[in-house]
Amino acid sequence: MTIAIYPGSFDPFTNGHLDVARRASRLFDKLIIGVYATPEKKLMFSQDERVAMARAAVASLKNVEVRTYSGLTTEFAKESGVQVIVRGLRVSADFEFEFDLAMMTAKLSPSLEMVCLMASPQYQFLSSSLLKEVARLGGQVDDWVPPAVAKALKKKVRTK
Ligand code: ADP
């Protein structure tokens, strides 16, 4: 049985993340979406909110589970019996960072393999940070996020 983890901040979970999760769930027996608790980023959503939104988004994918973790992804992977780390690769934004991450992962945990899925063309430009910016400025985000996320983004922006 091959278990994979798709780790990230997911602040918030977008249709680009969902696309990667859906495709990875077909490749592996089980996929854990690992919501990283304390990324070095300015977050819009709390850990609980990020987990709840990811859970709602992948509810129909039966072999996908959403969990939260802190500390090294490689340690969480080891504790969870994970063999593969999945990441998404957008054409302009991600290659160098993901490459460095793969090198570091190989150093920290040589038995873990990292697999990058190319972002689908319709999501190449989509990022959580861009979405948050658009939402803050009152733009329409419904086409790019699951319904629960669109609702949460609107609420967050209203109460700011
Ligand atoms: P990070 O883990 O760097 O904080 P995110 O939580 O936004 O970043 O993303 C988690 C993973 O999903 C990363 O590998 C990122 O490259 C990938 N990703 C983000 N947006 C997309 C997208 N639109 N299409 C495919 N992959 C994506």
Task: Give an overview of the whole structure.
- By secondary structure, the protein is of the alpha/beta class.
- 41% of the residues lie in helices and 19% in strands.
- Strand 2 (30-36), helix 2 and strand 3 form a beta-alpha-beta unit.
- The longest helix has 14 residues, at 95-108.
- The termini are far apart.
- The mean pLDDT is 95.
- Adenosine-5'-diphosphate is lined by residues 8-10, 14, 16-17, 20, 39, 87-88, 90, 94, 119, 123, 126-128.
Quick rundown:
By secondary structure, the protein is α/β, with parallel strands linked by helices.
Unreliable residue stretches:
none
Order of the strands making up the biggest sheet: 3-2-1-4-5
Largest sheet: 5 strands, parallel
**Cα end-to-end separation:** 45 Å
Question: How big is the Rg?
Answer: 15 Å
Total strand count, please?
Answer: 5
| Shape by Cα distribution | globular
